Known about the structure:
Layout: E1 3-8, E2 11-16, H1 21-29, E3 47-51, E4 54-55, E5 71-76
Parallel strand pairs: 1-5
Antiparallel strand pairs: 1-2, 3-4, 3-5
Amino acid sequence: MQQIEFILNTEAATVPAGSTVRELLAAHLGKSIGTDGRASDGSRLGVAVAVDSAVVPRSGWNDFELKPGHRVELVTAAQGG
């Protein structure tokens, strides 16, 4: 299968052509993510996604197809004070 190249949090990365934000997150987090953007096991993901500086809402993760050259930022929530 053909791979596409993009930037993930400032690092070069590749995914199969046709991959969505949901598929990228599932692979990156090691969790199954439903088409609604929620973890299949009911746990909280605590992550936000931006592509080319525009936030991709959770409701759009399943339909947002990654393209060559996209700049993807994954921001993970962290507790602290």
